[in-house]
Amino acid sequence: MTQKSILITGCSSGIGFDAAQGFRALGWRVFASCRQQVDCDRLIALGFESPLIDYADSATIKNGLAQTLAATGGTLDVLYNNGAFACPGAVEDLPRDALRSIFEVNVFGVHELSCLVIPVMRAQGHGRIINCSSVLGLFAMKWRGAYVATKYALEGLTDVLRIEMADTPIKVILVEPGPITANIRKNAIPHFEHWIDWETSARAEQYATLRDRLYADSGPDLFELPASAVTKKLIHAATSRRPKPRYYVTTPTYLAGILRRIASTRLLDAVISRV
Q: Count of CB atoms within 10 A of residue 272's CB?
């Protein structure tokens, strides 16, 4: 039986790293990419093949995929677009370049890699593109405007791609985690410090709560699950004969999906404002 292959982005920690371990345990050939060479080297030391892929750098996207395809003989069964980052702050305080920076990674890089993979999957007669969205791709939340905007965009692109690929052997799937044990909050701090001039903001006093949440380790969030909860859904998405178009992970995501269908915008705003 031919060994299955998967390329996973954002594998330095959290969801991506757990997914790489999970698929390797199933006997898959895992290409666990990271955006920094130091992390690639660490994963290589752990026995993974780890191409360098930085969504903000087209050259690394092309080279990382080329390295993967050279190793597999030109085939790839599954692409899991997992890499992303957050830039917290009030929408009115987000500079244009801050939005440009986060869209380059969370949307444009994902799109570029997916488009490069599609011809490979067409030629081999099968394939799956799985995009990691978020509960924040389903509803908005204060202070998360930049991240929410990218996940809404990713949801839209993925939905349209899924419909367009319906006449091909390529399955396009969304995974939508809620609170998961990962480093995304810690990794957001440099972006917040670089882009958000909170001290001169009209909301300077309100930033105290956000900064406390960013910098203080207050323990797990309500309903937080380990990254393995995402891996479990991802494995089904990658192996099922009839994968779902989208996979909710954590209670908040299921609640968000229900509320979107039954609640008015005013009611949703009232509920979200209390979070």
A: 14
- Annotated catalytic residues are 147
Q: How far apart are CA 70 and CA 50, in angstroms?
A: 13
pLDDT band with cut points at 50, 70 and 90 for residue 1? low
Strand extents, DSSP E, the chain: 5-8, 29-32, 78-81, 127-132, 170-177, 246-249
pLDDT of residue 191: 97
Supply the DSSP string of 153-210, one letter for each residue.
HHHHHHHHHHHHGGGSSEEEEEEEE-SBSSSHHHHHHHHHHHH--GGGSTTTTTHHHH
Return all residues near 179 (Cβ < 8 A) that are at least 6 apart: 135, 220, 221, 222, 223, 224, 225, 250, 252
Say which residue the tokens 């390295």 belong to. 67
* E strands in 60-134: 78-81, 127-132
What are the tens digits of pLDDT across the range 90-133?
999 999 999 999 999 999 999 999 999 999 999 999 999 999 99
Domain segments of the chain as ranges: 5-273
Q: Is the confidence at residue 53, as pLDDT, over 90?
A: yes
CA distances from 140 to 135, 147, 269 (A): 9, 9, 9
Spatial separation of the C-alpha atoms in residues 118 and 79, rounded to whole Å: 10
What is the distance between the alpha carbons of residues 52 and 76, in angstroms, rounded to a whole number? Answer: 17
Task: Mention the CATH class of domain 5-273.
Answer: alpha beta
Q: Other C-beta atoms within 10 Å of 29: how many? A: 19
